[in-house]
């Protein structure tokens, strides 16, 4: 039988596959046997072992269970997943999950913390169709969004301020029912005691201080950091000399934008097709 030689140092994906093969063979198991234990075909096991297929979170957890490795495969998967994210984003996620206050300004798309599963899936599937990510990576993106949203229900929950450019609520994503569900989610989110949602309408013009999405985090120790992205990378800024002007501009944005009540009325009217 031809057994493909593995080069675990070539990539995190290859290292994951090499570990899987090593632990399997140490137990004297065939790919068929491991597949039976995990609920996958031997072909799927082979593709992961040789680095031809990306493992999913579900796959990693089942490998840990079958091979009794604690959470070793899950941790390796998370490190590998972070390698596919924009530079700076994994660090941002760590701070976002602990922040006392989160301030978001978004353009063109509903931010991840507020996305419904259907909306998130529609965005991920469109990226698959464009060939920018695989189906497995699309599933991981949707899973990541759910994990991020879990931080909103911790005790105590963070204060979350969201200002959406009008393009966020007007840009159709998915089928009409997906968009309707997403707009309803915004209305429900605004009812939470720790949230504020506003919409910055197009006619704000130059009174809108930001042209690109921005997030400002306040840590439990009251230190500040901001996060912004370009097409290739994300940048987490922790120097208060740079973050304070951004926070000031965010406060100006909130003051210039319509109130939450006016913003929610706009969203409700859009749902009803009256805008």
Task: Describe the 3D structure.
This protein is of the alpha/beta class and 275 residues long. Helix content is 51%, strand content 12%. The chain contains twelve helices and six strands. The N and C termini lie far apart (66 Å).
The CATH homologous superfamily of the largest domain is termed Endonuclease Chain A
> How big is the Rg?
22 Å
Strand content: 5-15%
Mean pLDDT: 90
Instruction: Give the spatial strand order of the biggest sheet.
Output: 3-2-1-4-5-6
Q: Gap between N and C termini, in Å?
A: 66 Å
Taken in chain order, the helices and strands follow as HHHHHHEHHEHHEEEEHH
Q: How many structurally independent domains?
A: 2
Instruction: Count the E strands.
Output: 6
């Amino acid at each position: 039988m031809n057994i493909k030689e593995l080069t675990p140092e070539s990539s995190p994906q290859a290292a994951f596959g090499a570990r899987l093969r090593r632990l399997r063979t140490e137990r004297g198991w065939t790919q068929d046997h491991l597949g039976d234990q995990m609920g996958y075909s031997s072909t799927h096991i082979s593709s992961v072992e040789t680095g031809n297929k990306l493992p999913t979170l579900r796959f990693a957890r089942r490998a840990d269970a079958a091979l009794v490795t604690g959470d070793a495969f899950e941790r390796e998967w998370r490190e590998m997943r972070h390698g596919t994210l924009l530079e700076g984003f994994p660090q941002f996620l760590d701070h976002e999950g602990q922040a006392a206050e989160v301030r978001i300004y978004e353009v063109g798309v509903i931010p991840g913390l507020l996305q419904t599963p259907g909306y998130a899936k529609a965005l991920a599937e469109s990226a698959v169709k464009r060939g920018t990510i695989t189906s497995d990576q699309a599933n991981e993106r949707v899973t990541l969004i759910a994990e991020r949203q879990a931080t909103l229900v911790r005790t105590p929950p963070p204060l979350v301020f969201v200002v959406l450019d009008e393009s966020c609520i007007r840009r159709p994503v998915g089928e009409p029912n997906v968009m309707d569900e997403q707009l309803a989610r915004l209305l429900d989110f605004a009812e939470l005691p720790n949230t504020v949602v506003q919409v910055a309408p197009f006619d704000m013009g130059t009174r809108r201080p930001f042209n690109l999405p921005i997030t400002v985090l306040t840590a439990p120790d009251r230190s500040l950091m901001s996060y912004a992205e370009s097409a290739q990378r994300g940048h987490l800024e922790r120097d208060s000399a740079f973050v304070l002007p951004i926070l000031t501009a965010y406060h100006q944005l909130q003051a210039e934008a319509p109130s939450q009540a006016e913003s929610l009325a706009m969203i409700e009217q859009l749902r009803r097709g009256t805008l």
